Amino acid sequence: MRAVPFCVALLALTTTSLADSSEEPKSETVEGVSSSSGASADDEEPKETWMRAPAGGVAVRSGEDALLTCVVLGARGKPVFWRRARDQKLLTAGAVRVTRDERVRVLHDDSEEPLQGPGIKKGGDVWALVIKSVKASDAGLYMCELNTEPPVRSFHKLTVISRGLTPPDSQNTTDSYSANVPTLSTSALAHNYTDCCVNANVSKTCLGFCSIQTILEGTGQDPETCQPDFPAIVKCMADGRNHVPCCVQEHVPDICQDVCRGEFTPVTDNIKTHYSCATYMEKTLACIVEGIELLPSPPEDVEVDALNEKQLNVSWSPPLSNADTVTEYIVNVTTLRSFDAHLIDPSESSIRNETKMTQPMTYRVPAIKTFLVLNDLLPFTMYEITVTSYNIHGSSLPSYAFRSLTLTPGKMKPTKVEAAPQLPDVRECCVAGGVTHFGCVDKLCDPTKTFEIGLQVTDLMICAPWAGVTFGCLANGMDHTPCCRSRGLPEPCLPLCSGNITTLDFNHFKCLRFMSSYTNCLLQGYGVLPGPPSRLHLTNIDTDYAVVHWAAPAALADTVQFYNLHYKPFQGDEDYRSLRKVQSPYILEDLESNTDYEIYVEAVNEHGVGEASPRLIFRTQSQLLEEEEEVANAYNVTACCERVQLAGVCMPLCSYDAKMSDLRTLAPLCAQEFHKLLRCGAGGRNHEECCARRGVPAACRGVCGGAHSAGLNTCVPYIGNIVQCFEEGTGILPGPPRELHAVVSSDKLFLDWTAPQDGANASSYTVHWQKVGNNSQPYYYNTLQLDNQMNVTETMARIDGLEVNSTYHLFVVAVNQHGSSLPSSMLLLNITEDTENKEVSGIPSPPHSLSVASHSATWLTLSWQPPQFSHPDEKLTYTLYYKSPSGGGNITRVATAVPGHTLERLAPNSQYVVWVRAHAAAGDSLPSETLLAWTDPAYPAFVEPPTVNPVNLVMEGSSMTILCIAMGTPTPTISLYISGRLVRQEVTRHMVTVIHNVTRDMDQISCYADNGYGTPMQASRKINISHVPAIQASGITMAAAGDSVILECRVEALPKPTIAFWRDPNGRTAVIDGPNYSIQLIADPEEQTKYTMRLVIKKISEADEGDYYCHAENAFGKTVRPVSVRLRPTTPHHNVTECCTKMNVSSSCIDACSLNLDMDNIMDRPECMHDFDKLMKCAADGSDHRSCCASWGVPRNCLELCRGGAVSRSCALQHARRALACFRDSGARLPGPPRGLKAHVAPTPNSVLLSWEPPLKNPQTVYLYRVFWRAYGAKVPEKLDTSETSVVLTGLRDDVRYECVVKAANDVGTSSLSQPIMFTTAGQESTAAAAPVSSSGTASAVGVAVACILVAAILLAAGLYYRHRKNLRLKAQGGVAFENPSYLREPNPDTVINGTVPNGAANGAPLANGISSSAAWRHETLNTAAAPHREVDPTLYEELKLGHDGAGFKRLKP
Predict the structure, then answer these.
(1) What whole-number distance in Å separates Cα of residue 498 and Cα of residue 517?
(2) What CA–CA distance (Å, rounded) separates 1233 from 517?
């Protein structure tokens, strides 16, 4: 039995089995101020205050809700308390919960409506305590208490049952007030068999199952874990009583009666152990508890003694339980084996006993006697004897079985033992020798006690002065040295054996271990011990036992009381196993087969153990693990499976000892082969009678006949019952008749067949036949009884008197005393007048139960049951026929070897006619029933949004389960897409996919369905994939002391992380948000899982330099990444004062020029505004700061200020401070203009080589240069980017002059333009030298004239330049040729050197050196048509990606 049913029934027993036997009225627990008799149900208001407690208690399963009800009469507004009895803890007061345990609450209704129940007047009288989701610790007594003096209380018991147990259906989960509710009898609750369990080595954790009371209150243990202990527990629970008669009376099947005998069948992997007895467990346990009260226990102390060759004496003690009710004892004697007596003694060779097995013999013994002498037994024969107690109610289980041998002829058991010789008086010898210490006399002068007392080292030390006397007296004048040496005593101890010892020293201490052997040698030397047993030999050596014989010893044989037998395996280091108090012959049992053993025997008398017999070595017989010879006519289920061509993968199931694990594993693969397994398992036998006897329900008994039914899955719990019947039945039931033939002549029928070839022989045959009419079916596939029957003993029969022009159905079965076979074939005969000697052969019955297993718009899956009438080892095939009535009547045939097929490519919403035939070697069956089947209408596919588990908790790296559900007919093809990638595709309506190792980009789940009808459909779901934060750090940031530095880390995490900046990787030093530090977490507006960690260090100092650690953490983990800041050398590259001096700043304003421009000093003195442009030019330091200014909100029309250009007064006043702040923040990081631009002749035609030197300021940060060149006088320049300090310009014309400038860029921004040069393909043009001054008057005159003209030209040019610059300001918002990272205009080249205009004309007029005015470079492509489109706003993506202070040429507009 299984553990769970065992516990289920045990609980059920307590409430159902004793209901009828318990007739004592139920008392009610009442405690009140006065007797309850003072209150009457007829009173309007109770005069006294009292309570009613319900009968019994409440038993609920763990995890369910418990309801304890208390009826309070006459409360008169006093509060009602609920307490827990074991610790007096207050749970509720009135309707208010006092305990913190939120599972506890009170139900109370103040209504005045009457309620049903004894003594309950209205709803307000009832106070119910509710405990939600009870636990094992909640079990116990609870008190309902009324706050009176003295208090009125009622007690309520709550029992919590383990989830492994099931309470009986009749048990209420609330208190019952019915006076007829039974309670458990005291003896039933007192059935505590814990001591028996402990003695049986039941584990401590499972002892809760060793008491019915404990099980009722909840053991708290899982029954499955205690299953190994259940055999011992069930045996102890049965307590030696025979409960089988009660179980039989309660119709418990024989297969389920093991618990009734105190036995437990563990569930193993063998399929035969998986049988179901759950429905009978309540009756079984009820019988056990009833039997504990009524039945006697087995007799105690059973002993069997052999008196002579024909008599055995059996004795016992009365049973421990119900001994006074015993009416008689039954002694059962079974003859196990008889042996030839001449094997014992050659002189008795004339006496022989035939080896034979006899029926058990029973002897009735009155209760007043406790012994029995068995007479007239066979000599030298092994008998097994048991004794059973009986009373008027039943019996105990038999006692332990005892096996005994009768003696050989002429021998009698010794009835008298002679006294052994007297021992020498060693004590008197010691006293006479002068030993005065009483302890030494007692321990060393008594040879019978020397080895029993156990000498200690201290004893030898105390008695050392008398060593010579004591050991000399023990030796008694004899030398026992040879015996001691043979017993293994060491050399220093041998003087003790001879008695020649004068002193004791430490060398003799080791002799204490050998005192037992020493004493034995003394006794042997005294001649008081028996000699060694003689003639030790064995007979009847079998695989697991042997009969040991020996003769009495030659010396003192009449003093022998008994013998000790010692044996052990010859190989190995095992110790001898000893059997004490045995007599010859003795049956040595429980031996291993094919093993060598060594044995010897010792005789024992009143003085001790005598010398051992010689050792004897023997080998047990070899036991074959598997019988090689099988009975010729035995049924072979494996051969049957091979003949029906069972699939090879399913062959492990073709055995009566198949494994349940194989069945679970192979069931999906072998579903189409189960009909073959059932047919071969049944073997053509009808096992229904056995299945009924073993508790198989009627719905599953068709399986017992080998019929594969559609409800086979419901019969799996009974598979062990069925397989046991198969195995038993194939050995005792006859097989099916073979080769059934008939000869029809007019109205007569002659039948003949072949007898079964395997299994038990058939004693007779039964012929069944029946007339088939127009209104009857020609075949009843589930009926083995027809209207007419004939019993015959031969393999032929004759049937007369058949109706002419009629059809008959006929089959034959074999019968013996155990049951019948199944038909192997059937006959369907047409009887006509003109039929003469027509032969008809038996054919399989038609397939049956043709049905539609599943269907769709374009296919039908059909299934049917194999013929019931066919030989089990016949190979069957099938032909499926179908046609569409609307298809013109064309019949389509499909051949198949399995009882099922799927018809495909059918038309939607169409009808089909289907039938099937079976084919065997004997012939073809008749058609099965005809089936009309419809295909489904076609519906377009519809798909639901995917379901993802776990919901909203998918973690990166874990697994998620995606369910796609699609509707439509035919079944659609579902495709699963994850982030646009096809993952799986299957034709189904429900597709479950498990995705392992989920990544964060798997956030878009789409289910797509299409069935070829209508428009395919897709449903999607976006999920959030939680993951550990991932950080991308910005690396190393360079800064100057006093700068504001921004350190950023890009974080991707879900859920939103918490952030921190640390100064050490272990997080011990945190950066605190405060005046010097600002910590920000900026969410990405487009991607919700991305954030920017920003640490702003204000006015960085040396203490702030070093490594910082970005730390981001959420519920799934944390990540740390380093980011660093380093300070540049503190020596300033640019001195504003020096620049102001070169720019001729007035002396009154020169003090405003310092290391950095002092804006406050300028604003306080209006006279300095005239030099404002010069001051800003110096502060800009030749770098373009417009990106920084734009980020601080400087408007575009004022951005010239940020590269030192001239702006309006309003721009200067409003935005100068911001521009200076940008000069300070990024001035030291921006590059200066390239130096030394030169043109060289290139090695290729139409080319020129340009080279330059890196800027003085920040040359190491420059990673890109941009070169501008154009033909002299052209409007639009060309440009080229390079990372080198030289470049070759190609595609030039030899006859054209070109002008060129270069600017530098780094990650922070760009520089101003370099000094321009003029060049041709021949190289750079040199600067024209100034004409020398003439000393002649003509020269002077000419010089004056030229000077005047030059001054006029300069004035005119200045006026035109002023107008032109004003126009440029108006156009400044349009043209940009060399953009910075914020997409502002190209920086204005500085053409003023040391405060003067270079030689040449202004505003585009040719200069003396031939280079046009750099004002043309200022707006590079100012006059092109595309100018208005070169200054564009950045896109949102660019702003987010680059930030407000982006960097370098990488993001310059091409």
Answers:
(1) 14
(2) 115
User: How would you classify the pairing of strands 562-569 and 402-405?
Assistant: unpaired
How many other CB atoms sit within 10 Å of the CB of residue 553?
23
Which H helix or E strand runs over 1439?
helix 1436-1442
Span 1353-1367, pLDDT tens digits:
555 555 554 444 444
CA angle 859–863–866, rounded 5-degree value: 155
Relative orientation angle of helices 674-682 and 719-732, to the nearest 10 degrees: 40
Q: Any bridge partners for residue 385, and if so which?
A: 333, 402
Query: DSSP string spanning 488-543?
Result: T--GGGHHHHHT------GGGGGGGGGHHHHHHHHHHHHT-S----EEEEEES--S
Token look-up 């697991």 returns 544
pLDDT of the residue at 352? 40
First-residue to last-residue Cα distance in the chain: 87
- d(CA 1430, CA 1448) in angstroms, rounded, equals 18
CA pair distance 1254, 1252, nearest whole angstrom: 7
Q: Which pLDDT belongs to residue 45?
A: 43
pLDDT at 216: 60
**DSSP class per residue in 199-221:** HTT--GGGGGGGBHHHHHH---S
| Residue with the larger pLDDT of the pair 12 and 1082 | 1082
Write out pLDDT tens, residues 446-497. Answer: 776 654 445 666 767 777 778 788 788 888 888 888 888 887 888 888 888 8
3-state secondary structure of 115: coil
Reported confidence tier of residue 51, pLDDT bands at 50, 70, 90: low
Helix/strand/coil for 661: helix
| DSSP state string for 1350-1362 | HHHHHHHHHHHHH
Report whether the peptide linkage leading into residue 1129 is cis, meaning its omega lies within 30 degrees of zero.
no
Which of 230, 65, 205 minimizes the C-alpha distance to 131?
A: 65
| Calpha distance 954→960 (Å, rounded) | 6
Q: Give the range among 112-116, 829-833, 1216-1220 with minimum mean pLDDT.
A: 112-116
Average pLDDT over residues 721-750: 86
CA distance 723 to 663: 13
Condensed to tens digits (0 to 9), the pLDDT of residues 1383-1422 reads 333 433 333 333 333 333 333 333 333 344 334 344 333 3
CA distances for 1236 relative to 1233, 1250, 1254, 1314, angstroms = 10, 10, 9, 8
- Write the CB contacts of 1310 (distance below 8 Å, at least 6 apart in sequence): 1183, 1184, 1230, 1231, 1303, 1304, 1378, 1380, 1387, 1449
β-strand partners of 993: 962
Q: For the chain, what is the radius of gyration of the CA atoms?
A: 57
Amino acid at 310: K
Let me know how long the chain is. 1454
Q: Count CB atoms within 10 A of the CB of residue 251.
A: 9
For residue 585, is the peptide bond before it cis, meaning its omega torsion is within 30 degrees of 0?
yes
Tokens of 916: 């099937």
